[in-house]
Amino acid sequence: MPKALPIALALLIPGLTAAQTSPPATPPVATDVTSVDIRSFLDALPRDVVSDRPIRVVEVTGDYRVGVFGVFRPQSVPGDANLHRVNTTEIYYMLSGTATLVTGGTMVDAYQPETSTTSLRAPRIDGGKTRRVGPGDVVVIPGHTPHWWSSLDSDIEYLIFRPDPDNRLGLR
Fold first, then answer.
1. pLDDT in tens, 1-20
2. N or C: which end of the chain has fewer CB within 10 A?
3. Do residues 141 and 35 lie in contact, with contact meaning Cβ atoms separated by under 8 Å?
């Protein structure tokens, strides 16, 4: 059994190095989004509607962007289920409040909202995985996956990190 590890590493390492790309001639610049930036942004969001707005969207290479979005969701407005019909993975990082999030399953009575050509909405999801989330929790929601806040115990605030390989996000 001890001999299996060196053999596995010998087979794995060439594949990992082949998958790496050459570094750019000029290294990209890192972008800061400080806790002060985030708090100021969230505090300025309206408190009577669901807000999902970009704090910062940066180009990380010539053909790839990443967005950091701030969300305030009042307890009184849990909202519909959502499904992105494009390659949009979302990474939720909970800052405050607790809620129940459902992912996967089947959207019931889905419709396309007038404000979006890339998403479907529905009043609920049947099936799927249900989980309670709160401060410090992270949930990765792959593109094409239905997701829905089925109940909110309080107002919630969270960050959404959106990798954007298709450059749909505008720079900010």
1. 455 545 544 555 555 555 56
2. N
3. no
